[in-house]
Amino acid sequence: MMTVGGGCFWCTEAIFQQLEGVTKVVSGYTGGNAPGKPTYREVCSGLTGHAEVVQITYDASVISYEELLVIFMTTHDPTTLNKQGADVGTQYRSVIYYHSEAQKELASEVITQMASYYDTPIVTELSPLGTFHEAEAYHQNYYNQNSDQGYCSFVISPKLSKLRKVYANKLKS
User: Fold this and answer.
1) Which CATH number fits domain 2-170: 3.90.550.10, 2.40.420.20, 3.30.365.10, 3.30.1060.10?
2) CA–CA distance from 43 to each of 18, 63, 98, 128, 134 (Å)?
3) Is the pLDDT reported for residue 58 higher than 90?
4) Is 8 a catalytic residue?
5) pTM, whole model, 2 decimals?
6) Which of 9, 24, 49, 110 could form a disulfide with 33 if both were Cys (CB 3.0 to 4.6 A apart)?
């Protein structure tokens, strides 16, 4: 399992759902300090400290954790602090939540390797996974159910086009 945040979870979810070997993607929240299960509205306030994330279940015999990390690092901007496009706030931070020391080490290596591809420093946070809270039902599978919405058309669709172009060999048939 892998947990990452790269801005709005609708974008990140839509990207990982396209990949061969990914069996489940759940949008949610983690990394905060507020007690109890946060709501979308509370997380969007920026007061809970949570990030919008996706938790990805995958078949490591089909796609590796390292491959997923590289795709993650190249399908959002890991050089902008608390911001992805027009989405601004700590809930939109670039973050990798590791589930084990092995994941932490590999994520650190990938971040270091990817640094030369960017003109500005990578600011992706690397943190241990705390409690993961599944987001409300209407956030799950969002792009597939709302692809005609403005945000989906203008923000998510271009990211998916890039994914299809750069990672065609990694996509579900």
Assistant:
1) 3.30.1060.10
2) 26, 31, 21, 19, 12
3) yes
4) yes
5) 0.96
6) 49
